[in-house]
């Protein structure tokens, strides 16, 4: 009987030892699996970081490719405009002087012989004068765009520059120019700012089909001078408003497409900004009082 008990105890102890061993093996296997899981989680985390970095690199590469494509397009435009500009500048310079002589000669004849000129001839003179002025203005568009002369900045009255500009524009009888009631001083290249006024005002007159009001306002802060040119016309088409400062883009049948780009170049040369809003069409120019 005693031997049976001993045999049973020995068998039980053997089973316990075996179970204990299996338990230890399971614990070791669990620990090993846990270490593998932790390792996989780390690798997964690293993979996610690499994936994010890859996505970022792809996004940056796409941006750079887009920028490069845009740069190539702009470079092509610049090369084309450079060639066109050089030729146009020569033609514009050669044509401007004879046109100015024609315009001044007509004006001189009108002044000297006003009482002797028949009405129908006087109207022809007006047509010649208007056509000459329009051609001179378009040639100035070309010259202002292709010239890259440095600024000759002096302290100027903005009202005086505006008056000089208006004196050179043929203003139809049905156009009203409402000028700013205040004056501001500005360190600028007077001739170039005069070209800005001329272009914006002529554009406004043409946009109103020679009938309406052009409103010009001046404002200033301690550091900036602002002026607006607003017209009572129908407004700029929505499809065109984003493109009006692009070279060679025009909504006019007889426009050069260089007037507003030239204006933008002049304003940028003065380290200023120009923007446009619609209905009513209003051009806003912001210039620093002192350019660097």
List the helices and strands and how they pair.
Elements (H helix, E strand, L loop, with lengths): L1 H111 L6 H28 L7 E4 H10 L7 E4 L6 E4 L1 H18 L4 E9 L3 E8 L27 H11 L3 E5 L4 E7 L4
Parallel strand pairs: 2-4
Antiparallel strand pairs: 1-3, 4-5, 5-7, 6-7
Describe the structure.
This protein is 61% helix and 14% strand. With 292 residues, the protein is α+β, with helices and mostly antiparallel strands. The protein folds into two domains: 1-147, no CATH class; 152-288, Histidine kinase-like ATPase, C-terminal domain (Heat Shock Protein 90, 2-Layer Sandwich), CATH 3.30.565.10. The strands form two sheets. The chain has a five-stranded mixed beta sheet with strand order 2-4-5-7-6, with helices on one face. The chain has a two-stranded antiparallel sheet with strand order 1-3. Helix 1 (2-112) runs antiparallel to helix 2 (119-146), helix 3 (158-167) crosses helix 4 and helix 4 runs antiparallel to helix 5 (259-269). The longest helix is centred in the N-terminal third of the chain and has 111 residues, at 2-112. The radius of gyration is 39 Å and the shape is rod-shaped. The N and C termini lie far apart (115 Å).
